[in-house]
Fold:
Amino acid sequence: MTQTPPNADHAHQAAGTGTPPREHAIDALRGFALLGILVVNAGSFASTYFGLGVADPAFSRPVDHAVRWFISLVFETKFYLLFSLLFGYSFALQMDAAQRSGSAFVPRLLRRLAGLLLLGVAHAWLLFSGDILVTYALLGLLLLALRQLRPGTAAVMAVALLALVSAGWGLLAWLMSLAPPMDWPLAEIHAKAQQAAQAYRSGAIAAIAQRGRDMADGVWFVLVFVQGPCALAMFLLGLAAHRSGYLATIALQPARLRRWVLCCLPVGGLGAWVYATAQNSTTRQPDHVSAAALALDLATAPFLTFSYVAALLWALQSGAAGRRLGAWLEPAGRMALSNYLLQSLVGALVFTAYGLALVGRVSPLTVLLGCLALYAAQLVQSRRWMALHAYGPAEWLLRAFTLLRWPAWQRTAHPVE
Structure:
């Protein structure tokens, strides 16, 4: 996956200091992942019905259902897995580089995780209750503790963890099917969603308080029983992919990438279709049906994620068109943390009392089109920024916290870490 550095001297310096050269395909994958993260998170910003299992009655036209179904099919539960895979890959690269340099790498990486944790806490309270950075920081501690794992062992642990989570939800679905239904009355669901929307529209303090209620009511449950274990599994797969060199090897083999797409896409696509259909039915599904659909999705979503990875790596090998695609995606991926936070800032300004307070007032199609426009703007701005700067703003701040010194702000050479 590592492409040839701009010149041989630069590569030699990187090797001599233990600092890895940039892996451009990883940056491009990270830039691509930003689109999926944006589309899913925007749904949570735009509607307080998101995640309640009931469609917003204000947007019940066929086109609204079709857009929500499409987003569930293509984006939900897939792109955070991709981001997690890349986090594990990059963190393993940083650990290996720090060890080779002979420095006290554990305190340095602990500071990096602490800085990520602080950013995540601020992000969750001030901008978006569905923050993933806190989870990444805490799981990063586990990855650091497991840094001596062999690639094969890490991969086996990852597969076992994914299977355990999926089987757990499948067992829960079966038990729920045997018990008397305990459906939450629709009137209470609508009242809860409307109260949340009113809080987000009322003022900045009310919006912050509502984020706290959202985290207490259900966000923690999703993180502990769905996203957390699955993210850790993808961390381990990322570590294995880096340590084994497998991803770097197949990234330059289009035939193998095509086989990955052909093998993974049908499995992942079928699971995604069942999940999207169950989640976006025009009638409310029994809880055990929703749980069973989630169990199937948790088992198959990694396959769809792997097909996305293989398809993009394949596209990046497609001559001049692939190079142009990479040239647009890579800068956004190099400042992915800044772009992620910017997406949340825009969402808070558009949908809460920080700005326009449009929560519950914008159709799913308009939200999706707005996401595409914002993502395109981020690609353009990221390319301009990275042409002049060594790091994105948030990356620069996190690096300063990690190293306990101010890193370069302007881009004086091609950054290698």
